[in-house]
Amino acid sequence: MSHITIIKAAAVDLPKEPFNGRHMIDGVWLASSDGATFERKSPSHGMVVSVSAKGGALEVDAAVAAARRAFDAGGWKHTSGKERAQVLHRVAGLIAGNIERIALLETLESGKPIYQARAEIEGAVDLWRYAAALARTLHGDSHNALGSDMLGMILKEPVGVVSIITPWNFPFLIVSQKLPFALAAGCTAVVKPSELTPSTTVILGEFLQEAGFPEGVVNIVLGYGDPVGAAMSTHADVDMVTFTGSTAVGKHIVAATSGTLKKVSLELGGKNPQVIFPDADLDQAADAIVFGVYFNAGECCNSGSRIIVHEDVVEALTEKVVALSKKVPFGDPLDPRTQVGAIISDAHNRKIDGYVNAAKDAGADILLGGKALDIDGLPGKFYMPTIVSNLSADMAIAREEVFGPVLSVLRFKDFDEAVTLANATSYGLSAGVWSENVHTCLAFAREVQAGTVWTNTWMDGYSEMPFGGVKESGLGRELGRYGLEEFLEVKSVLMRVGKTRVPWVAK
Ligand code: NAP
Ligand code: MG
Fold this sequence. Notes:
Blueprint: E1 6-7, E2 19-21, E3 23-25, E4 28-30, E5 37-41, E6 48-53, H1 57-72, H2 81-96, H3 99-110, H4 114-137, E7 141-143, E8 150-158, E9 161-165, H5 171-185, E10 188-192, H6 199-211, E11 218-220, H7 225-234, E12 240-244, H8 247-257, E13 263-267, E14 273-276, H9 282-294, E15 306-310, H10 314-325, E16 330-331, H11 346-361, E17 365-368, E18 372-373, E19 382-383, E20 386-389, H12 396-399, E21 406-412, H13 415-422, E22 430-434, H14 438-447, E23 452-455, E24 474-475, H15 480-485, E25 488-496
Parallel strand pairs: 1-16, 2-6, 9-10, 9-12, 10-11, 12-13, 14-15, 14-22, 15-21, 20-21, 22-23
Antiparallel strand pairs: 3-4, 5-6, 7-8, 8-25, 13-24, 17-20, 18-19
Helix pairs in contact: 1-7, 2-4, 2-6, 3-4, 4-5, 9-10
The structure holds NADP nicotinamide-adenine-dinucleotide phosphate and magnesium ion.
């Protein structure tokens, strides 16, 4: 295995005690009513990182009731934008002052590299600050040209009680893509983190209290998708569900919410293509491809898991990608040099391996990796950087979300074939194009079915830029002004000016 770059176990002191997570309901930290708990073992280090209260329908009922009371009583929804912004800024400051504490727990629960966890927490600080700016500038609209006797006002009002359900791949970042925007809009919330990564959301709860959020405005319930997430999606007193995770559970949530017609916002999976034209800067493209596929060990909705390369440059580019892949440091996530850490669970590691083996059996070539990886001194589960080529577009590995460090290489002859291949999936989250010709880039950006398109770059994101998917990648948008709009309802107010109304009933 000397042909890839491995970082062995680092000499780092691990926490002596597991983190104890409890529910935060109506401003009080609570164990479960039946005393049930669940453990999270580190996917890299094997030790028990956290012991959390395991919630059920009772906890969800209490949390939703608290959020409902906090919303209906009007305390939060009637605060001024200025006050909301001040509290959101206080949360941002508390996060910024505790990056190391959050990053260590995030890394131990998720397996992601510590350098990356730190960067994500810093990104979260920016999201809380950006949402504060949105709170301050939130406004509706008016129509002053409906006639001299009529004035139309469009009020933006908070949707109400929002259920926020988050996954394990970016626990702190994703809750920060949703919660501050909901709060900026004036909503109240019940939050459920993934059972695999609950602890940093609990720390966020501490900060929310310290920042001065009134009781019940944000509630956190820990536990499993079923029953906790399921109850949060069907509860009659919840007005909206915002979810990030798998497409399968996303569809389930749409069905579950239909009984009460809640608003639903979904960030789901992707099978994101990068198309490389023959005039592209292949060195720039190769580096972005390697980043796109190994970032977060490929456990990323935005993973650049497919490249579609012009036949004239496919050999040259693939060679560069294989060479660069060997230099990416895989290993102990607590070592600051590590760029790719552990896989979230044994079951997920086997799922990744299943995709690779099925492709191999169907005749694909494994150019690099292709199996699980052991790291000296660590009990956890890792997967090798893996590049698969000579495959057809209908193979599962080329169409489905592998969610691992596995790159599929496809080839094309002309622009139309490239677009057809790029769109040949049920997903539509993001896509990329590499060409030195701006016309090629723009034509591709228009034709590809995706919520985000990168030209000559990959996976750049900003708090200002909306993010989300088309097709089975989701509904709605996060971030930017659109991210705030998701949590707002529109109310039209029509006001007659003067006693000018013509009677309907004849005198
Ligand atoms: P998931 O099952 O979709 O879970 C995401 C969140 O939804 C978790 O908090 C989960 O709870 C909860 N949940 C599960 N069943 C639910 C239900 N019936 N009603 C409401 N909430 C429910 O994702 P996962 O298990 O974490 O990962 C499975 C696969 O999803 C991955 O292999 C990957 O392909 C995909 N995924 C995609 C993204 C993305 O960003 N698009 C993120 C993560 C995963 P639990 O704590 O019990 O899981
Ligand atoms: Mg799950």
